[in-house]
Amino acid sequence: MHRTHEYIFKYPWFPFTEDVPLLSHPSLMTFASFVSKPIVKQIVLKLGVSKSTINAIESHVIDEVCKLPEPIVMQNFKLLMSWRGRKSTNKMVEQFLGVLRGIGRWDLAAIVNRAYREHKRMHMSDFI
Predict the structure, then answer these.
(1) What would the DSSP string read from start to end of 50-89?
(2) pLDDT exceeds cutoff 90 at 80
(3) pLDDT digits (tens, 9 = 90+) for 5-35
(4) Would you call 17 helix, strand, or coil by DSSP?
(5) Bridge-partner residues for 61, per DSSP?
(6) How many CA atoms lie within 13 Å of 56's alpha carbon, on the beta-carbon side?
(7) Which long-range contacts (CB under 8 A, 24 or more apart) does 8-11 make?
(8) How far apart are CA 5 and CA 28, in angstroms?
(9) CA dihedral defined by 42, 94, 75, 5, rounded to 10 degrees?
(10) Alpha-carbon distance 95 to 116, whole Å?
(11) What's the rounded Cα separation, in Å, for the pair 122 and 59?
(12) What is the mean pLDDT of residues 77-88?
């Protein structure tokens, strides 16, 4: 398993550097809450996250006895954080926007672009 993901599983709330508000922890959690798992998976694949990393995140369980998987929102969040890593940059925002446009999700690209232009993180109200 990729070292970043081992760290995410072991310490899910470790302090990331929040350099770009749009790619901050709360902002990506909001995005993960409103975007379906197939779309998030498509996004992170296009952003270069390996299939083995995706599989490791998808197969992580929160209850070993019942083999209950993590909620989809947490899986989505961990997939996005696996791409983002410890530090976010403006170039990463451009990559993110490019992928959203490339997969035809102009609606999501508009939300992301608006938050980026306003130098803020995404909020629930952006998606409603």
Answers:
(1) -HHHHHHHHH-EEETTTTEEPPHHHHHHHHHHHHHTTB--
(2) yes
(3) 444 444 444 454 457 899 999 999 999 999 9
(4) strand
(5) 69
(6) 17
(7) 8/78, 8/81, 8/82, 9/60
(8) 16
(9) 110
(10) 13
(11) 28
(12) 94
Euclidean distance between the first and the last CA atom of the chain, given in angstroms as a whole number: 36
Give the whole-number percent of the chain exceeding pLDDT 90.
73
pLDDT of residue 69: 80
What CA–CA distance (Å, rounded) separates 15 from 25?
A: 9
What's the rounded Cα separation, in Å, for the pair 32 and 48? 18
Whole-number Å distance between alpha carbons of 81 and 114 = 21
